[in-house]
Write a structure and sequence with these properties.
Elements lengths: L10 E2 L5 E2 L3 H47 L1 H10 L3 E7 L3 E8 L2 E8 L8
Helix pairs in contact: 1-2
Length: 119
């Protein structure tokens, strides 16, 4: 008898075949963990994409409002869309805005037209 020497042997059932009882459970648990991880990552990506879309919508609205009525209108439209106006630049011919929504940031420009329907 060798003390301290262990050999790992698989169990055998009555027919002499290997008994892998428990191996399926381990594999199933690993698969569940992997699927749960993938679901969480997909959810994060979906939320980030939705935030970018909301930020872009707010930026577009703010730029259009800003080109017609100035920075206060741009700020108001950004807030109504749940965003924050981060910057407003009016160079006379066009307006450029930058807005933030959660972790997303979007930029939009709008140009003044000689035949603006708002004039």
């Amino acid at each position: 008898m060798n003390v301290g020497t262990h050999s790992i042997r698989s169990r055998r059932d009555d027919r002499g075949t290997r008994d892998e009882h428990g191996a399926i459970t381990v594999l199933l648990a690993a698969a569940i963990v992997i699927v749960a991880y993938l679901v969480v990552q997909e959810t994060k990506l979906s939320v980030a994409a939705a935030d970018r879309a909301r930020a872009q919508t707010a930026a577009d609205a703010a730029a259009l409002g800003g080109v017609v009525d100035g920075e206060e209108a741009a700020d108001e439209l950004a807030r109504r869309n749940g965003a924050t106006l981060l910057s407003f630049v009016d160079d006379g011919d066009r307006v450029q805005v930058r807005v933030g929504f959660h972790d997303a940031v979007a930029t939009a420009r709008a140009e003044r037209s000689e035949t603006s329907p708002f004039s």
